[in-house]
Write a structure and sequence with these properties.
Layout lengths: L2 H11 L10 H25 L4 H30 L9 H27 L8 H37 L23
Helix pairs in contact: 2-3, 2-4, 3-5, 4-5
């Protein structure tokens, strides 16, 4: 690819520089696999032990949330270490929103196909319900914990960076300490 074509492609579509930890598509694909695996394991658990279905559903939900929370935290830590000024932070919100929407839509389709043709115990609904309602829930299930994880990761790094700094808000450099202020009486 020529330099100009690479530049246009990179700036138009935003996928010219994909790294292992900076791609929303990678996050979406991995969390799609985690969600589908959780749904299959929940289905197996419910089929074999139907009285413990609440436990299996809770564990499956917690697994997806935990992966998104940890990965979001790692993103927040990496971003805060790379940019010491909070104004220079990357936009992790949109990255994780794209990943969540992608994972929700793809996991909904895959779960519907698995439930309709392969494995009857995963509890799927009709295609459009699975795609829109299930996809929206999955997107929120990924986006919210990742957003919280990124905020916590950034907070932890900022706290460590500010530990050594003496930041006394009561001291002002622009006013000399020996200067006396006179009060004018009226």
């Amino acid at each position: 690819m020529s330099r100009l074509a690479g530049y246009v492609f990179r700036n138009t579509f935003g996928v010219g520089t994909l790294s292992v930890m900076s791609s929303w598509l990678l996050r979406g694909a991995v969390l799609t696999a985690v969600h589908v695996l959780a749904r299959v394991l929940v289905g197996v658990g419910v089929v074999h032990q139907p009285l413990h279905s609440t436990l299996w559903k809770t564990l499956g939900l917690a697994g997806v949330v935990l992966v998104a929370l940890i990965w979001g935290g790692i993103d927040g830590i990496r971003d805060a270490r790379a940019n010491s000024d909070p104004d220079d932070y990357e936009d992790l919100t949109v990255r994780w929103l794209k990943a969540g929407v992608f994972a929700g839509a793809v996991a909904g389709v895959i779960s519907w196909v698995l439930g309709s043709f392969v494995f009857a115990g995963i509890g799927q609904a009709s295609f459009f319900v699975e795609l829109f309602a299930g996809g929206s829930f999955t997107a929120l299930l990924i986006f919210a914990p990742a957003f919280v994880g990124a905020a916590i990761g950034r907070f932890l790094i900022r706290r460590d960076q500010n530990k050594g700094a003496e930041d006394d808000w009561s001291e002002h450099d622009d006013i000399p300490a020996d200067d006396t202020t006179e009060v004018i009486a009226r």
